[in-house]
């Protein structure tokens, strides 16, 4: 689950991680009031969307302006807020469709001496969180890794023990910190690493982490994502979720108890089991097709869930064919076919439909399909199914 910058900074502050003062606004007039309240000669007006690259991004309505703007007066803050609010911001992470800006964050100006990069991710090969840091603040970590990989510092730490003093010193020396900044790092780095662990984060990125003229460290930006599998431990985070920033079909699927991720292809996939869903997508690509989604109905889906699954898949205008791949274990094949046929009648499926079944009661299920009178193509195995669904598109 992703959250906005201003939300992440509020959580940072609650754990004594230094952040600049800022005010959330939703109107241009409030942006002017925020400038006055912050009281610095320079302020920054920041678009709040779930995407990186906002500073380098451009608005569709006025491409001369980015999503992060320096302002030097109340009038300047109001004018920029008027242009930004309700406009569509396109960044390297939003895709060409961009995202509409409905919230702004007005933040105090700082005396910035240096900009650094600091992030924490889960290293799944090692099974530990890993600090990633670099002196090249302000750049995307992908660019740093490609152009100057030697400038990236990586330090794994035990989430139960936290970042140790010797690890803090290692990172600080590599970043070229000294004096007051070195002392500040002794508090800042361990607190951020603790924040990552106790909140079950999957990603934490501060880009840039700034060193001020008097040696303070502050999180000038904040990008945080939480592991959704752990959100039952953080019920207070529910209020941080911004559904307008999420794919509507993914939200709808989650509410129906389905696992759905929208992709860019044109072959819809309805499968029971995450591993089987991944294999199904692989086989579609192997035979020249492109999956339009990942959709796992799970091992105990009912008629309503299967109907909702079809409705979600077909709501994507890019879907030109659907492959249903079911291995009946806990869920019997005849049960899934009953649900499939009911859903077929309710929704009125008009695209080619290929069904592959295997497992418990498979013969009965195949007989039900054969006697249904529906325009449904059956397949003997997964390879056969993938070839047939791709063939329906003339590939």
UniProtKB/TrEMBL annotation:
Signal sequence annotation: none
Q: What cellular-component terms does GO give this entry?
A: cytosol; succinate-CoA ligase complex
Residues reported to bind substrate: 272, 329-331
Decide whether keyword Magnesium is in the record. yes
- State the superkingdom: Bacteria
Instruction: List the pathway annotation.
Output: Carbohydrate metabolism; tricarboxylic acid cycle; succinate from succinyl-CoA (ligase route): step 1/1
* Record-annotated ATP-grasp domain positions: 9-235
What EC number(s) does its UniProt record assign?
A: 6.2.1.5
Q: How is the cofactor bound?
A: Binds 1 Mg(2+) ion per subunit.
Q: Which UniProt keywords apply?
A: ATP-binding, Ligase, Magnesium, Metal-binding, Nucleotide-binding, Tricarboxylic acid cycle
Binding residues annotated for ATP, in chain numbering: 46, 53-55, 107, 110, 115
Q: Which residues bind Mg(2+)?
A: 207, 221
Q: Name one Pfam family in it.
A: ATP-grasp_2
Q: Which GO terms describe its molecular function?
A: ATP binding; magnesium ion binding; succinate-CoA ligase (ADP-forming) activity; succinate-CoA ligase (GDP-forming) activity
One BP annotation, GO: succinyl-CoA metabolic process
Q: Which InterPro entries match?
A: ATP-grasp, ATP-grasp_succ-CoA_synth-type, ATP_grasp_subdomain_1, Succ-CoA_synthase_bsu_CS, SUCC_ACL_C, Succ_CoA_ligase-like_bsu, Succinyl-CoA_synth-like
- Point out the coiled-coil segments of this chain: none
SUPFAM superfamilies in the record = Glutathione synthetase ATP-binding domain-like, Succinyl-CoA synthetase domains
Which cofactors is this protein said to need? Answer: Mg(2+)
Task: Output the NCBIfam families linked to this UniProt entry.
Answer: PRK00696.1, sucCoAbeta
Q: Fill in the subunit field for this protein.
A: Heterotetramer of two alpha and two beta subunits.
Report the sequence similarity comment from the record: Belongs to the succinate/malate CoA ligase beta subunit family.
Protein name listed in UniProt: Succinate--CoA ligase [ADP-forming] subunit beta
Originating organism: Thalassoglobus polymorphus
């Amino acid at each position: 689950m992703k959250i906005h910058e201003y939300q992440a900074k509020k959580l940072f502050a609650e754990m004594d991680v230094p952040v600049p003062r800022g005010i959330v606004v939703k109107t241009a007039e409030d942006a002017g009031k925020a400038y006055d309240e912050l009281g610095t000669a320079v302020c920054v007006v920041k678009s709040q969307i779930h995407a990186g690259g906002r500073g380098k991004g451009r608005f569709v309505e006025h491409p001369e302006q980015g999503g992060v703007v320096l302002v030097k007066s109340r009038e300047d803050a109001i004018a920029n807020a008027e242009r930004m609010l309700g406009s569509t911001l396109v960044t390297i992470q939003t895709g060409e469709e961009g995202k509409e800006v409905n919230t702004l964050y007005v933040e105090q100006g700082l005396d910035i001496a240096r900009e650094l990069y600091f992030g924490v991710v889960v290293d799944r090969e090692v099974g530990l969180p890993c600090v990633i840091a670099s002196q090249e603040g302000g750049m995307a970590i992908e660019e740093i890794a490609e152009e100057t990989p030697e400038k990236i510092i990586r330090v794994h730490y035990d989430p139960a023990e936290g970042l140790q003093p010797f690890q803090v010193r290692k990172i600080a020396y590599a970043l070229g910190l000294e004096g007051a900044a070195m002392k500040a790092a002794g508090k800042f780095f361990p607190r951020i690493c603790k924040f990552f662990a106790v909140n079950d984060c999957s990603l934490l990125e501060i880009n840039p982490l700034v060193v001020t003229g008097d040696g303070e460290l502050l999180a000038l930006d904040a990008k945080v994502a939480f592991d959704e599998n752990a959100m039952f431990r953080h019920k207070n985070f529910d209020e941080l979720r911004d559904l307008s920033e999420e794919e509507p079909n993914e939200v709808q699927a989650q509410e129906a108890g389905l696992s759905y991720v929208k992709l860019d292809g044109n072959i819809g996939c309805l499968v029971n089991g995450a591993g089987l869903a991944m294999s199904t997508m692989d086989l579609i690509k192997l035979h020249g097709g492109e999956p339009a989604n990942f959709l796992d109905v799970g091992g105990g889906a009912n008629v309503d869930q299967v109907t909702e699954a079809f409705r979600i898949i077909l709501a994507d205008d890019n879907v030109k064919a659907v492959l249903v791949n079911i291995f009946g274990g806990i869920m019997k094949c005849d049960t899934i076919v009953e649900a499939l046929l009911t859903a077929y009648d309710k929704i009125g499926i008009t695209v080619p439909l290929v069904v592959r079944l295997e497992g418990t009661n498979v013969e009965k299920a195949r007989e039900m399909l054969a006697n249904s009178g529906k325009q449904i193509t059956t397949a003997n195995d997964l390879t056969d199914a993938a070839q047939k669904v791709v063939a329906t598109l003339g590939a």
